[in-house]
Amino acid sequence: NPAPLAFYLFTNSLDNEKKALATCNFGGGCINDAVVHVASDSLPFGGVGESGMGSYHGKASFDTFTHFRSVLKKANWADPTFRYAPYTSFKEKIIRFFLR
Fold it and tell me: Which of 15, 20, 35, 70 is the most exposed place for a label (fewest CB within 10 A)?
């Protein structure tokens, strides 16, 4: 796959390690071991592209699973009554005019 969830490389060659890390796109991985990166709570874990939904573990978990709220605040002095029920045909015409 173009972006696997995990990447495991077994090598004694520093050149091969550098080349693999520079050219391969993956979520997380290990050099000369397998799977143990998932168990470390100090390393973010998660995929990229189709293989993931973001990183988690430690602060990365907080960031991934936190919903950042959006809030719009407006002044209430400019609050036209046509926005509220009961809706008449006249109010509907005004609303349709502004939504064009």
Answer: 70
Prediction pTM value: 0.52
- Measured at the CA of 67, the angle between CA 64 and CA 69, to 5 degrees, comes to 145
* The token pair that represents 4 in the structure block: 């696997």
Cα 58 to the chain's mean position, in Å? 16
Residues 56 and 46: beta-carbon distance below 8 Å: yes
The CA distance from 50 to 12, in Å, is: 31
CA-to-CA distance for 72 and 92, rounded, in angstroms?
A: 24
**Helical segments of the chain, H only:** 14-23, 36-39, 59-65, 89-99
The pLDDT tens digits along the chain (100 residues) read 778 888 888 988 999 999 999 998 888 888 898 877 777 777 777 777 776 666 666 777 777 666 565 566 766 677 788 888 898 999 989 888 888 8
